[in-house]
Amino acid sequence: MGIDEVRRFNRTVSQRIGALNDAYMARDRPLGQARVLWEIGADGCDVRVLRSRLDLDSGYLSRLLRSLESDGLVVVEQNGADGRVRTARLTRQGLAERGVLDRRSDELAASMLEPLSESQRTRLITAMGEVERLLVASMVEVAVTDPRHADAQYCLRSYFDELGARFDDGFEHARSLSATSDELTLPAGLLLVATLHSQPVGCGALKFHGDEPAELKRMWVSADVRGLGLGRRLLTELEHQAAAYGASVVRLETNRNLTEAIALYRSAGYTEVPAFNDEPYAHHWFEKPLGG
Amino acid sequence: MGIDEVRRFNRTVSQRIGALNDAYMARDRPLGQARVLWEIGADGCDVRVLRSRLDLDSGYLSRLLRSLESDGLVVVEQNGADGRVRTARLTRQGLAERGVLDRRSDELAASMLEPLSESQRTRLITAMGEVERLLVASMVEVAVTDPRHADAQYCLRSYFDELGARFDDGFEHARSLSATSDELTLPAGLLLVATLHSQPVGCGALKFHGDEPAELKRMWVSADVRGLGLGRRLLTELEHQAAAYGASVVRLETNRNLTEAIALYRSAGYTEVPAFNDEPYAHHWFEKPLGG
DNA sequence: CCCATTCTCTGACTATAGTCAGAGAAACCC
DNA sequence: GGGTTTCTCTGACTATAGTCAGAGAATGGG
């Protein structure tokens, strides 16, 4: 269902965008160098970040930087905080050449719109926006993650920060019911973390209680990826995990201010039930049976 | 208007499709070889066609074929008709390896759909279809072409064939009003030919009469590119050309069976007028003033 | 039938991309 | 404060991509 259409799209798009884009980049400098020049950006960039973003061998990247340096486009200087890390920065000449690449990108985009009528342009841009958002959504990876992992910690911190900002009287960790790292580690429970380009962008957790309902906790989605359906995806995945670990019901509590979460739960088939715990910050309690 | 959105799209798509696609292709053979293997296809392919489709140097392509041949994936044999042309054909082993590439393309497509919900998939496929069609439309090139050129001849032949098939009593060239090659060559007139991937896919012509209305003739769009707005694009371009060569009115005659053409003329602002010539195959005469 | 053209191939290169091992300096972690 | 890890760099390679000139066979066009 849809594979052929996707492949047609992939073909057309590689031809019309992939190939031309590379050709434009490589016009007056090897593609590898041009990519590095572009990626450094106007504000400079740590070499280690370049390496991971472009997925280059450290020796190879070093050599690319050396050649850009000898052409006077880049300087690589000590980073203040950490003596091992070095930061690449564009010289005035480097900025100028990056500007040329920028203009070429504009030209490519313009050449795609130019032959089309006004109404076709509007349709193209709308459809591109839709494809782009959905492709980004499909690049998000969701994986069971140790709550002590840096990505997990970031998500949990962001989650608590958001609660503090949105609850009527703020949020104080100590007053709330617990969900320690141990409680969110198998076999007691688990934590899912969603990442986009290796950056954490969302999470959700489960606490298991044997045959008793599993508790859903710590649902958080970064504002950067709102609208990509990540909340629903995390929820679905958590339900699958709960079922796989033997729960036949999932339940959760939530605060009245988290309206989009409440809407999500309702639309995913959760029904409101009487309070099943004494979480002081909760106003609503939901549960859902995990049918076969 | 829209440049930034297009650039965002280009970036996301190069990352998610361009890069991965190449990586998949290159997994067990250099990218160059893999591309040739793919392009030869199940039915074989003339070497000259490979060269133009992949835009490769003839020496380089020859070497790539040699290495595929020595791996037992390809045979290059004499083409029957022309002793200079050689045809590459996949061996059984070559077909098998191409099958692997085919499966990888499927996997890539599937991996794009897999993380999405059912409704997101439907939206993605719809939007991809729209983008793909409009990108193809934007790849069509329209240029003033000598009517004696092979592409022009192909279009005119196709045009007459179509008239023969669609008119109530067929179409006989000799009975119709003329528009010879000379009449469709500047300064007497001109012919626009539309090409997609260097293949002719449509045409349209003008005959100039000084200050008098220019005559629009020979509008044809290949069935392969229907729905891409090419008819309207040719019409618009012809009107610009007519204006540029001093005409203030364009007029044309057409047959009642060419309903989509008639609809196009009406929607582009043409109004029906009394017969201004005695073209035996015409039922409707239209004209349009070229306002500044 | 001869001359120009087309098509493919080989030889002889250069340029780009990428890999791997190892070294030296700085920072981190008990 | 000593061992481990992180970060960057150099040296020494290999592999891939691509270019250019020219040769030889086949064809096409006067």
UniProtKB/TrEMBL annotation, chains A, B:
Keywords: Acyltransferase, DNA-binding, Transferase. It comes from the Bacteria. One of its GO terms (molecular function) is DNA binding. SMART domains: HTH_MARR. Residues 142-291 form the N-acetyltransferase domain. InterPro entries: Acyl_CoA_acyltransferase (IPR016181), Bact_Acetyltransf (IPR050832), GNAT_dom (IPR000182), HTH_MarR-typ (IPR000835), WH-like_DNA-bd_sf (IPR036388), WH_DNA-bd_sf (IPR036390). Coiled coil: none annotated. Residues 1-133 form the HTH marR-type domain. This is DNA-binding MarR family transcriptional regulator. It comes from Kribbella caucasensis. The lineage of its organism: Bacteria, Bacillati, Actinomycetota, Actinomycetes, Propionibacteriales.
